[in-house]
Specification:
This protein is of the alpha/beta class. The chain is built from 17 helices and 21 strands. The structure holds alpha-D-glucopyranose and calcium ion.
Length: about 575
């Protein structure tokens, strides 16, 4: 298998707004990232993914870009960014940034122009349609497609009376990829960033750039007028043509990384179409495959109880680990800025340290490029807001409005957002026990989680048995001469696939075989694994473990990496 820097990298996603505020305005910034580079080096990070820092009115915290060539003033300047690149590179850390090509902000000059008149030269850069001709259809928009963030994906513009499409917020109009001049401008812009020395991109919502150009109504069954029929704008064959063109014009000949984000459901065949080594499109893609194996999204029900489906979770990982083997590469991640905190999701607050370490073990022992999401390394938890006004995310704000209209009381909505909101992952990073968790000397843009006294980076650095130090140890194991090939490139085999809460697998490359044991429950128990007969513990999350021959007496959230020897040594 071809070795690449990005296959061996240890990734870390920074949500700049919430990472570290260097000037006391309550908003994290580029200088704040620079100040913390030594910390990231200490952790063992070799690749940073920066969520967007482009100029933006911040309707969606920067995923709504109004100028692709400049930096939002609250984050700093282009000089700051250049300094960040240099400082990161000095520490052997690569840097990639979000690249948002599905839509822009409504303040982008292209859109400002586009909406002026039907004949404006930028009109065709966006998707414009007239309202329906059939007055009995039950809606005013061009069709009945829903948006991810709002009921309809169309918004009427009063200048020309036509509707523009937006699959996210109404302040984020979708670009029209059928327009060659627009594509050309995007590709030029991407090259400009790579020429500055950037090491690649995470291509936001990239599988949505092409729409069903018949724009015909969805016939999906659902109670709502507007149908959440994401197939109307996902994974069309034409996306692959565009990505191939982008590969040839932008990425080819440069040693850079292109990671795509595929929203909505995507099959393994589709993933291979995007990432296959023979495809010349993307190096790897993030999907949401492993994110839905507990029922948190049902938590509007009054008698809801959280339940993890570990068999489902294992099968999702298994699909990726086995079906892409030798054909394509993949990232491994637990959460990003769009998900609840993983410890509140698949871990357990009561077993905070043990479950945090177990999640770390899985992240760093599967095949793929691991991406730690900032704060995950200390087991940061979901927000515990007691007021709906504390939510800042544009998606949460429209959800609150929608659920209130549907008759839900504020308490039910609060419970739902406690479990699902994207803001859960966007609270300020908990650096230490000082005011505002050491994130800012001013007023933070979003409330700090008050558990920062217990959970913070400073105290976990000091404590050798902390979650953070477990991440460090696992990272150095993954980089070590002895285990790197098995952990980064090795084959994967799932054991006891039907076990309801144990996740066990082997990783193997040449003569090194590892067996990874994880208990996704608070249960004690005993398990016999024939492979263990010649096993030696490499790392574990308890001080002591009880295993003899092939039988292990396990404890809550226990996680052990064994090395297996075929012959007794
Ligand atoms: C992606 C981003 C998300 C953003 C959306 C629109 O899904 O991860 O944060 O809201 O695209 O850009
Ligand atoms: Ca700041």
């Amino acid at each position: 298998m071809e070795k690449k820097w990005w296959k061996e990298a240890i990734g870390y996603q920074i949500y700049p707004r919430s990472f570290y505020d260097s000037n006391g305005d309550g908003i994290g910034d580029i200088k704040g990232v620079i100040e913390k580079l030594d910390y990231l080096s200490y952790l063992g990070i070799t690749l940073i993914w920066l969520s967007p820092i482009y100029k933006s009115p911040m309707d969606d915290n920067g995923y709504d870009v109004s100028d692709y060539y400049s930096i939002a003033s609250e984050f700093g300047t282009l000089d700051d960014f250049q300094l960040l690149l240099n400082e990161a590179h000095t520490r052997n850390i690569y840097v990639i940034m979000d690249l948002i090509l599905n839509h822009t902000s409504d303040e982008h000059p292209w859109f400002v122009e586009s909406r002026i008149s039907k004949t404006n030269p930028c009109r065709d850069y966006y998707i414009w349609k007239e309202g329906p001709t059939d007055p009995t259809c039950g809606f005013n928009e061009p069709n009945n497609w829903a948006s991810f963030f709002t009921p309809s994906c169309w918004e009427k513009d009063y200048n020309t009376g036509e509707y523009f499409m937006h699959i996210f917020s109404k302040r984020m109009p979708d670009l029209n990829w059928q327009c060659p001049e627009m594509r050309e401008e995007l590709f030029e812009m991407a090259k400009w960033w790579l020429d500055l020395g950037l090491d690649g991109f995470r291509l936001d919502a990239i599988n949505h750039i092409v729409k069903d150009t018949s724009f015909s109504n969805s016939s999906m069954e659902s109670n709502s007028i507007y149908k959440p029929d994401w197939d109307k704008f996902s994974n069309f064959a034409k996306v692959h043509e565009h990505l191939n063109e982008m590969h040839n014009t932008v990425f080819s000949g440069r040693n850079v990384l292109a990671v795509g984000e595929l929203g909505s459901i995507t099959s393994m065949e589709q993933i291979l179409d995007y990432t296959g080594y023979d495809r010349n499109e993307l190096n790897m893609v993030f999907t949401y495959d492993h994110c839905f194996f507990n029922n948190v999204y049902d938590s509007l029900n009054t008698n809801w109880i959280k339940e993890n489906d570990i068999i489902g979770l294992k099968s999702a990982f298994n699909r990726w680990q086995t079906q892409l083997y030798k054909k394509a590469w993949n990232p491994i991640y637990w959460l990003n800025h769009d998900h609840p905190r993983v410890i509140s999701h698949y871990g357990d607050y009561v077993f905070h340290e043990k479950s945090g370490k177990m999640l770390a073990t899985i992240l760093l022992t599967l095949r793929g490029t691991p991406f730690i999401y900032n704060g995950e390394e200390i087991g940061m938890t979901n927000a515990n807001f007691d007021n709906l006004d504390s939510y800042k995310d544009v998606a949460a704000i429209s959800k609150i409005e929608q659920l209130r209209n549907e008759g839900y009381c504020d308490n039910s909505i609060l419970n739902f957002l406690h479990n699902t909101s994207r803001d859960n992952a966007r609270l300020p990073i908990q650096w230490n026990c000082s005011l505002n968790s050491g994130f800012t000397s001013g007023t933070p843009w979003i409330e700090v989680n008050d558990n920062y006294f217990l959970i913070n980076i400073h105290s976990q650095i000091e404590d050798d048995s902390s979650i953070l130090n477990h991440y460090r140890k696992l990272i150095s194991l993954r980089k070590s001469i002895d285990f790197k090939d098995a952990l980064v490139y090795g084959s994967f085999r799932l054991l006891i696939a039907d076990h309801p809460f144990l996740f066990c697998y082997t990783r193997k490359e040449k003569d090194v075989t590892l067996l990874v044991f994880n208990n996704f429950s608070s249960n004690f128990g005993t398990i016999t694994l024939p492979e263990l007969i010649h096993g030696k513990v490499v790392i574990s999350n308890y001080d002591s473990y009880t295993f003899e021959n092939n039988t292990l007496d396990f404890k809550p959230y226990e996680s052990i990496v064994f090395q297996l020897f075929l012959k007794t040594v």
